[in-house]
Structure formats: structure tokens, C-alpha cells
Amino acid sequence: MATAEKSIALNPIVDNVAKQISALQSEGRLRLPPNYSPENALYSAWLKLQTITDKNGRPALQVCTKESITNALLDMVIQGLSPAKNQCYFIPYGNQLVMQRSYFGTACVTMQVLKTNRPPVAAVIYKGDEFEYVVEAGNKKVTKHVQRLENVKKENIIGAYCTIFPPNHEPYTEIMTIEQIHQAWRQSKMNPFDEKGNLRPDSTHAKFAEEMAKRTVLNRACKMFINSSDDSSLDLVVESFYRSEEAAEEAAFEQEVAANANQEFIEAEWHEKEDEESVEVQEPVDGGNESTQEKPAAKSEPARAESKPMQQPKRRGPSF
């Protein structure tokens, strides 16, 4: 069993996290993967944190609260993840640092829960692919998927599927259409769609559509097994799995709210001239100058503008 008996003298925050992990292991409340080294993971995370900045270029370790940094590192170790293997990322949202799992991280947690060395496999289905599946006793089974290179384009995505291989059980497959995937994205607090229902070009979902589609179907497939775990030593893992998701969603949402709250719409209120007498102003012509234009006989009252704060977007439910 991997232990965290030796604390890392890099920073009081990291040292505190290492001690908390050791205490959880000593109490029998946490079981880490056999080949997982919390010391190495924390060291790797601390090195990466030195280079992470927020959207304004400020170091994350300076702008983020100590509590959020501690929780992000704890979630990483409890879930048995390593930033060196791209299983998780640290993202600053305002003054909150969150640990966000990657596709590989979710697969890693699922393998830990299932006690298997075979990772889940997710794939994207493109328009033009030869894709067939059957349903046997309520379980889906992909029987054919032939993909051609020319089909692999973001605009051609029509669905995705993920297969999990539980030990001593038949493989489990989850299949989602692109409509179902988009609906899952809409449940996120950070809705990547604009008011017309189109993906915002600057959103992560638009830039990395294939990876986000695989991540969505993987999450849906894995959650069924994670929720059904009856191993008490994995309770903290399952709790951390959902807490880190909620923390990332909440922090990203709060940052967007804060950004929008600082914006103002200027609504100009124009007033009619009290003097009914007016002179039509001619449009300038090429080569003309202001001195050749006729002036109004009476000055109009200057326009007054009232600033109104932008309304905060409504919260949405958790994503799949």
C-alpha cells in the first residue's frame, strides 16, 4: 500500500496535505492504488503550480486561497491522480484553485473503483462511419465500427460511445447521440451555447469537440459503476470524485458571474427639443467641411445615459 508517511518540505500547504493523507490511511479510511506515490504526485503538482497563472497573468499561488489550494491537492491524492500523467489539471477561477480531472483521470478513478487494470475506452462516431450495435437483455454491444480518415472532422460528429470492462462481467457500453451530448453540455453551469443555440467558438467544447464528446460519454458510463461501489474504503474517493466536479463548475460559474457583473450596458435616453423650431442638417459631402453645414437654430438638450448592471445568468444543474 502506498503511504504518505514522509511529508514534503516544499511548502506548509503541501506538507499539511501529506500529513492529512497519512492520517486518513492510518485510520483505514483511504486506500490508494498499489503503485501510486502520493509524495511524487504532490511534488509534481507543486512544480506545475509554480507555472500556472490566471487569465490576467498573475501566479495562481498568489491569487488563490490557501484553502482552495489545499482542497485541490487533497482531491488529487484521494482520487489517486497524477498531473505528470495528464490525469488532472489545476485551474484558477478568481481566487479559487480547482483540480479538474482529464479523460485519463476519470478512467483512472473508474479502474480504481472496479479494481481492474483495463481502462475504459471511448470513441467518437462521425458521419459516414459504418457503425452498428445490438441490444441484448438491455445491454448495448457495438458489433461494427469502421471509420475513414476523411470523416474525422468536428462538424461530422454524430455521437460517441464508451465501453467499460468490469472484472468477471460482460463489458458495459454507453452510447450517446450528438443531441444527447449537447443536452448534457447544456446542463452545465458554463453553458457553451449562445442564445441562438450554437456552440460559442471560444468555448472549450467548440475547440476540442472530439475530446469533450468522449469525456461526456465516459463520465456517464463511469458514474454508474462509481455510484454502485460498495467498498467502504472507496467512500472518500467517490465523495472527492463528485466534490471536485462541483467545485470546478461552481468556481467557473462564479468567475463568469463576477466578470459579467462588472460590465454595464449604457441605455441612452433621448429627449425631444423643447423648442419646436429646428433646421434640417445636411449630410456632409465628399471634400466638404463642417463650416459649410447648416447649424440648428436652437441647441438640443444633451443626451443623458443611465447605466444598468447586467443581470447575472441563471444557475444550471450539474453536467453529466
How does this structure look, described?
The chain is α+β, with helices and mostly antiparallel strands and 320 residues long. The protein has two domains: 1-101, no CATH class; 117-246, no CATH class. The protein is 36% helix and 18% strand. It is built from nine helices and nine strands. The protein has helices at residues 12-26, 38-49, 60-63, 66-78, 103-114, 178-186, 204-207, 209-227, 235-261; strands spanning 88-93, 96-101, 121-126, 130-136, 139-146, 157-164, 172-177, 264-269, 304-309. A three-stranded antiparallel sheet has the order 3-6-7. A hairpin with a 7-residue loop joins strand 6 and strand 7 (172-177). It starts with 11 loop residues before the first helix and ends in an 11-residue tail after the last strand.
Characteristics:
320 residues; 3-stranded antiparallel β-sheet; 18% strand; disordered C terminus; 2 domains; alpha+beta; two-stranded antiparallel ribbon; disordered N terminus
The separation of the N and C termini measures 32 Å
Query: Strand arrangement, largest sheet?
Result: 3-6-7
Rg, Cα atoms, Å: 27 Å
Which consecutive residue ranges, at least 5 long each, have pLDDT under 50? 1-9, 263-320
The percentage of residues in β strands lies in 15-25%
Helix and strand composition category: alpha+beta
Count the domains. Answer: 2
Mean pLDDT: 79
Shape designation: globular
Q: Quick one: biggest sheet?
A: 3 strands, antiparallel
Q: Could you state the order of secondary-structure elements as H and E?
A: HHHHEEHEEEEEHHHHEE
Count up the helices: 9
Helix content bin: 25-40%
The total strand number stands at 9
